[in-house]
Amino acid sequence: MTDPARLAAQLAFLTEADKLKSVLRAGTLADRSRRENSGEHSWHVALFAMVLADQAADGVDIARVIRMLLIHDLVEIDTGDTPIHANDGQSHGSAGLLAQERAAADRLFGLLPSDQAAEFRALWEEFEAAETPDAVFAKSLDRVQPVMQNLASDGGTWVEYAVTRDQLETRVGHRVARGAPGIWAHLAPLLDRWFTSR
């Protein structure tokens, strides 16, 4: 039998999650027609996990990775997107941004029934910590997807933020290589060619 209060909470969460589609990211679509939104990014990177599952380390649970990726950016409903290459002081990993994201996670996952709130929050925390094999692979794909978008759009945000090949390696490469070394090995020569052609 349906629990009306539980269903109402679940539907309220889903309605709130729709706001992720209004959060614009720095990067564009591959065709450069417009900025990508965070809802599109979450869908796309979850699809990356399905398609590139054979690049994961042994024992990685792709279903869990997909679940992480579908919720990993929900906090951006409250915080907005912080471009990894921006130099505006609100960088990835800053104490201020982490506090804002935790407050957003409290609010958003708190809309759900308590069992789902705890489950989703634990998945989000696991993704953020990037210590388990599932989270390491998920985080790698979260970094690969924008690289692919930038390659397809002839540099995209790399041009906009004057990103160097060394900066890309430092900010993105080590994270991808940790969880998806085969993907980074494949992309490295493509990136070398793109950056040396500028």
Automatic annotation (TrEMBL):
One of its GO terms (cellular component) is cytoplasm. Residues 17-184 form the HD domain. GO terms for molecular function: 5'-deoxynucleotidase activity; metal ion binding. Keywords: Hydrolase, Metal-binding. It comes from the Bacteria. This is Putative hydrolases of HD superfamily.
